[in-house]
């Protein structure tokens, strides 16, 4: 039976997986991001921006909406993980 649930497709799908712990059923495999960046970096300069730009923006917005007493750590950890990848740090 079809449901009326709307699923956001595209780069926004990365954010929940980035917020989860690596190598868990909800998270991404540890090497996934570095392999993905390496693959798309070779194909097209704009591809990384199209894929990771919305994810970086979404994580930044999530952190901006938090305070020291709320759950800011998963978003900060995900943003740190992405910016440790040199091609993404320069975006």
Explain this structure to me?
By secondary structure, the chain is mostly helical. The protein has a domain at 53-91. The chain has five helices and no strands. Helix 3 (45-64) packs antiparallel against helix 4. Helices cover 58% and strands 0% of the residues. The termini are far apart. It has helices at 14-19, 32-43, 45-64, 73-83, 86-89.
Which percent range describes the beta-strand content? Answer: under 5%
Supply the number of helical segments.
5
Counting DSSP E segments of at least 2 residues, the number of strands comes to 0
By helix and strand content, what is the structural category?
mainly alpha
Order of helices and strands: HHHHH
Mean pLDDT: 87
How is the main sheet built? none
List low-pLDDT spans.
Answer: none
Task: Tell me the overall shape.
Answer: globular
Helix content: 55-70%
Using only CA atoms, what is the Rg?
Answer: 14 Å
- Distance from N terminus to C terminus (CA atoms, Å) equals 42 Å
């Amino acid at each position: 039976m079809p449901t009326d649930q709307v699923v956001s497709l595209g780069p926004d799908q990365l954010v929940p997986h980035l917020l989860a712990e690596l190598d868990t059923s909800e998270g991404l495999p540890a090497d996934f991001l570095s392999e993905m960046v390496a693959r798309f970096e070779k194909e097209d300069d704009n591809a990384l921006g199209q894929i990771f730009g919305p994810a970086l923006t979404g994580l930044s917005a999530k952190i901006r909406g938090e305070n020291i007493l709320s759950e800011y750590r998963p978003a900060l950890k995900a943003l740190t993980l992405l910016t440790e990848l040199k091609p993404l740090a320069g975006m």
